[in-house]
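Much of what follows relies on a compact textual record of a protein's fold. With that in mind, consider the following protein and its fold in token form.
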Amino acid sequence: MIGFLRGRLAAKHPPQLLVDVGGVGYEVEVPMSTFYGLPATGAEVNLFTHLVVREDAHILFAFGTERERRLFRELLKVSSVGPKLALSLLSGMSVDGFLQCIESQDADSLVRIPGVGRKTAERLIIEMRDRIKNFGAVGGVAAVGGGIVEGPGGPQAEAFAALIALGYKPAEVTRLLKSVDASVQTTGELIRGALQAAAAK
């Protein structure tokens, strides 16, 4: 099991990253909550990881904090919740926001996340209710660094691709990105603004 990566951030195309660890490139998928805290391409990153083994692929998921990874692992224990949906949940709201939804039995906020229907939201509330009782703050932010360097295609194109990967439909992504303030220029802020608009609808 690969539990931790420390290396150079070689590329980022949300939600995928390429991390160079001693000359070996690890492809990982991250939630938007981790993406927002990433340093510039070329800087060192420290990421907690979780390996999902399937018949057709081995997929490495990475997280900026141990707390995010812990919630991801708890979500995978819920009936009908797979890695992709767990990643969408962590991208659509913070760990604390999710815990608050469970505590207040707020299914309406959960169903705003792509892939989460009413039945899944209710199942999450029921199955996660007891698991979050001892879910305190664990660990700190592992991803270190500063601003975001945009890759080919520009911020709008990268944000569009990231939101599609999270399960939003193209027409909805276009609408959400149009709702973001025109002064926003970075991929991370565009995605954050779009997700906030989706949560407010």
